[in-house]
Amino acid sequence: MAKENRIGFIYKEAMDYLQEHSHVLTNEIKYEEILNKYLENERKTTMNAVFETAVFSFHDWNYNTGKNGIKVHEKEVKALFNDFDLNYFNDKVKTLTDDELEELFKKAFYGTGDAYKKLKKNVCDVAAYLSGFDNDVTKMYEYFDSFDSTKASERKKLIDEIAKRIKWWGTALVPNWLKDIGMSNYSKPDMHVVSIISGIGLSSEDCYEVMEAVFKIADDYKSVDADASAFKLDRILWLIGTGNFYNHKDIVSYDGNEDDFIGTVKPKL
Description:
Largest sheet: 2 strands, antiparallel
Number of strands: 2
Shape: globular
Distance between the termini: 5 Å
Order of helices and strands: HEHHHHHHHHHHHHEH
Helix content: 55-70%
């Protein structure tokens, strides 16, 4: 089968593989219900939620930050940032002296070395970028939608624009945030997704090539499932690579791995 044609079957192969190797240890909830929790992709309804998603994305890029627990310390961090109200952040947080600002971020996130200083710069840049939309979440999505996300060149244009504005984000972290705020045609080329897509032979390890392959697989599979998306495939591949059902650790066991999945799918191309 030519890799340029009808590659949507990989989407179903991924779903089937994940289900086959995921074992629910209780009769109180079905596998489909569990998986759907990881595939939900609604757009945020407030700028607070958009800002919060951006701030907590540090868990995906700064592993030296001590308080990485999105669950363990979420309430504590939200309190320090007044529920991630963007106006509050601009008026009460960004106006602090640099020393006071660093102390606040150190208190909120701890971390080794200067990790919290990187996070401070990142979050302040995010706040500045989002403020350009006048705290209007609808205006923000309208702007993002002005980039035709069904076209690789347009997705790249938006990713590059945001990456230039926000320190410590780049080719992987910008689409990671976009997908997590409901932009379903974006995916994060993390190490697991890159390993699987390049291992199958659909791209090199270049981030943009990987994202394009993920999009094409999902787009092709839409002829079978209209709800298929790059976001969902991203999540499925990530689960195949990690087995990390992080909200269901006690009730789901997983015995698959990305190398085994690659070996299963690659011959079928």
